[in-house]
């Protein structure tokens, strides 16, 4: 049994937890970071699989992610642009492939006009949303009562336009069917990136990567914390009162502290025994938050063969099993890597078949974009965060229909000495590493203020 005392105990050594811990130490407070896994990083994980370096978790950096970019620069890390030279490809509902450039998919002229109109309308609506307070929008209640799918059906009769607009929020971001979340939740997702147009623009939202992998951010932050990071310590009990907390782990650690930060996905709160229990409203709120579901597929080849055909590697289709795919070749690597994504209902279906059939179907989908060579990778790997005990989904948590306006304002509210911080509750940078860093900074500042009050 190890028993220690700190000013602040932090549960979770991802980007939010390690950021908060560093900020608190700079302010002169002592910390202990407890991590359930045997590694630092949370939903950031760069690993070598069959000789190939893969970004199993989050990986991209976009121009608006100022907190992440500041951290990358401060840590001395380098970035490089995602490969995007050449044509993108789009597959329509009939299975026809079309090469294109630009942001708008090659669809019939009438559908293109509808896409442009809807994007402009969504941009105008997003401009009225404060990503930190979407529930304050004058129409928040009404927007949160209608699913994004039903909202799109009210806007246009063009099915392909609806399918493609939904793709950017449902498949590519929240990784839930468009009928499972509200129009308000969709607007928050877009507002967190600055606009809906930014989500549509793959060259913007998926702009850069970190040389050597994005997991280096929490790894280097954790290095600065030294012996204050404790791995293999799943927390099972948080005892709290007005003056402090006692946190107990499965690894026979007990930490006494003035404050606690839960810096992990909110869907994991029910796995912790709080004494006394969390307030009724918090418990009810947590029942209306759920993770999305996506398989991130990595396929490594002896060379980036698609470039020889003038393709950028960027591919989209709401009608393919892999709804989007990109050139994910590592910096300085002669081999070529494709990354594809299979989300929500498609992911459900693939986990009802064998691993062999799942791989076959996914590679066939990639071949529909890139040709038959895509069926023969040297390395194939599926990132399945739903199977990760301490994550249980991807990319992050969102409210089910009606939950955001009802409970959103209470998501970050501290409970006595217990504070909450993760990308799942960010405004700007929501569901991204940038949001995790922002939340780590925010909660650390709140605790520093409380400690000195």
UniProtKB/TrEMBL annotation:
Gene3D superfamilies: FAD/NAD(P)-binding domain (3.50.50.60). One of its GO terms (molecular function) is oxidoreductase activity. InterPro entries: Amino_oxidase, FAD/NAD-bd_sf, Flavin_amine_oxidase, Flavin_MAO. Its EC number is 1.-.-.-. Its cofactor is FAD. It holds the Pfam family Amino_oxidase. Keywords: Oxidoreductase. Signal peptide: none annotated. The keyword Metal-binding does not apply. The keyword NAD does not apply. Belongs to the flavin monoamine oxidase family. This is NAD(P)/FAD-dependent oxidoreductase. It comes from Microbacterium marmarense.
